[in-house]
Amino acid sequence: MNCCRPLVLALLTVPLLALPGESAEAQEEERSVVAVLRYDNNTGDDKYEHLGRAFSSMMISDLSVIERIQLVERSRLEELIAELDLQQSAYVDPESAQSVGMIIGAQYVVAGAFVTVDPEMRMDTRIAKVETSEIVTTAEVTGEQESLFDLQQRLSDQVIEGLELALTVEEERSLRERQEANRIDDVETMVAFSQALCLLDYGAYLDGIEAMQDVQEAAPGSAIVRATLGLLRDKAEDEGRNRLRNEANSRIGGLLGRRSQPERPSRPPQC
């Protein structure tokens, strides 16, 4: 696996910025940089192929309220995974997870897998320390599909425990408030959400907006659903403006006798 190409390093190894009023040294000492990878589908059912996108997105959003944790953006992780063309499961292949962590600048990598979903859900999680490749903790949550929200909370708690963080009362309250704000209660809605995230990752923004309609109807109060739908709309608008600009430039080039470059076909979404 070629994981150290200069292009990847140049695009994705970005230094972290210090918080206002903090020195970079203080930030480095106080904040753990954590990459939450997409959970793998080990159920054998293609229906859940992208469910891990939804769970990693949810966990990143939930844990981001804890200031002592610096979460790597999910979009950066997806770009890196696509750039490296990782085929093996990051959960069963710790070397892949460590490579991602090193390139992205993370200190810890959280990788997980769905073992079963129907009728009972089981999710396994592993937290690795990137510098030493040591597995600092493993965790498992099991429960009925109807207890999805409880399973998500337990999973986040186990990750925090694996990072050896003792939350303050204020941090605990902020975490619970964020989890409640993002709440999605049933697996079918999470599956639909994961499909929309897949379309977002592949740049199929209009299809993603359409897919999000059912999600929004099922979870109208979810902050992460509203935020994702807003992001899809922004991306679609930007894409529309760029298309109009390219068409205008192409017409101008034709009037001036220049041959316009054909558009490169976009990668079809595998969602």
**Unreliable stretches covering 5 or more consecutive residues:** 1-28
* CATH class type of the largest domain: Alpha Beta
Helix and strand succession? HHEEHEHHEEEHHHHH
Largest sheet: 6 strands, mixed
Q: Strand portion, in percent?
A: 5-15%
- Structural class, judged by helices and strands? alpha/beta
Helical residue percent band? 40-55%
Number of domains: 2
Shape: globular
Structural description of this entry:
A hairpin with a 3-residue loop joins strand 4 and strand 5 (120-129). Strands 1, 2, 3, 4, 5 and 6 form a six-stranded mixed sheet that branches. The chain has helices at residues 6-12, 24-30, 51-63, 74-84, 94-104, 148-162, 169-182, 187-201, 205-218, 223-255, and strands at 32-36, 40-41, 69-71, 108-116, 120-129, 134-144. The protein contains ten helices and six strands; from the N terminus they run H-H-E-E-H-E-H-H-E-E-E-H-H-H-H-H. 52% of the residues lie in helices and 15% in strands.
Write out key terms for the chains shown.
2 domains; Rossmann fold; about 270 residues; six-stranded mixed β-sheet; about 50% helix; alpha/beta; single chain
Fold topology:
Elements: H1 6-12, H2 24-30, E1 32-36, E2 40-41, H3 51-63, E3 69-71, H4 74-84, H5 94-104, E4 108-116, E5 120-129, E6 134-144, H6 148-162, H7 169-182, H8 187-201, H9 205-218, H10 223-255
Parallel strand pairs: 1-3, 1-4, 2-4
Antiparallel strand pairs: 4-5, 5-6
Helix pairs in contact: 3-7, 3-8, 8-9, 9-10
